[in-house]
Design goal:
This protein has helices at 2-33, 38-60, 77-90, 96-107, 109-135, 143-160, 166-186, 190-209; strands spanning 66-67, 139-140. It is mainly alpha-helical.
Length: 210
C-alpha cells in the first residue's frame, strides 16, 4: 500500500514537470515566436523556471534516500566513462529533440542556453533521478534495488526525449543510465546535474560554432 502511495506521489511530480515546466517553456517559445525582445521574455522564463526548480528541490529535500555502496557506485569515473561513450554515439544518431534544440539555438541562443544548459539538467535530474529515488527507491540497500532504479530512470528519461528510432532510444537510455550512475555514485544530485549540464553545454557549443 505504501509503495502504491509513493508511486502516486512520484506520478504527481512527473506530471508537474510535464505540465507546469512544459508550460513555462511554452510561454518562452511563444513569446520568442511573437517577436518579443529577449530582454523581456528571457528574464521572465528564468524567473519562472527558477521558481519551479526551487520548489521542486525543496520538495525533494523533504525525504531521504539511502544508497548502499556496491560495484555500481564504487568508482567515480564509471559514470563519466559511460557518458563519454554515449557522446560518441549521439553524433551519429540525431533525434527530433536534438533538431529542435538546434533550431532554437540558432534562432535565440540566449534563451536556448538557459533552457538547454541550465534548467534542463536541473529539472530533469530532479524529476528523473532525485524524485524517483526519493519516492519509489528510497532504500537502495542492495544492488538489485539500485539496478531497478537505474533501469526505470533510464527508461523514463529516454521516452521523455521522444526517440524516433530504436537506436535513438538506446542512446537516450544509455545517457540516462550514465546520469543515474552519477546520482548513485554520490547519493545526491550534484554529480548527475554537472554531467548532464556538461553534456548539454557541449551540444550547445557545437551548434553555435558549426
Amino acid at each position: 500500500m505504501k509503495t502504491l502511495k509513493n508511486i502516486g506521489w512520484y506520478s504527481l511530480t512527473f506530471l508537474s514537470f510535464i505540465m507546469i515546466y512544459s508550460f513555462i517553456q511554452g510561454v518562452g517559445v511563444a513569446a520568442m515566436k511573437l517577436g518579443a525582445p529577449d530582454y523581456v521574455f528571457v528574464p521572465v522564463y528564468v524567473l519562472l523556471a527558477g521558481i519551479f526548480t526551487f520548489v521542486t528541490y525543496k520538495w525533494y529535500k523533504t525525504g531521504t534516500v539511502t544508497i548502499e555502496k556496491t560495484a555500481l557506485n564504487k568508482y567515480i569515473w564509471l559514470p563519466a566513462l559511460v557518458w563519454a561513450l554515449v557522446i560518441v554515439a549521439q553524433n551519429f544518431l540525431p533525434s527530433v529533440n536534438q533538431q529542435t534544440a538546434e533550431q532554437l539555438t540558432h534562432n535565440q541562443p540566449l534563451f536556448s542556453f538557459f533552457m538547454v544548459v541550465v534548467f534542463a539538467p536541473l529539472t530533469e535530474e530532479l524529476t528523473f533521478r532525485g524524485m524517483l529515488a526519493r519516492y519509489v527507491f528510497p532504500q537502495q540497500d542492495n544492488i538489485k534495488q539500485t539496478v531497478i532504479f537505474l533501469l526505470v530512470s533510464s527508461l523514463i528519461f529516454a521516452l521523455v526525449h521522444f526517440p524516433g528510432t530504436p537506436q535513438q532510444f538506446l542512446v537516450y537510455a544509455s545517457l540516462g543510465f550514465s546520469l543515474g550512475l552519477a546520482y548513485i555514485n554520490k547519493g545526491g544530485l550534484a554529480y548527475s546535474i554537472a554531467l548532464h549540464a556538461l553534456n548539454n553545454l557541449i551540444a550547445f557549443l557545437m551548434i553555435v560554432m558549426l
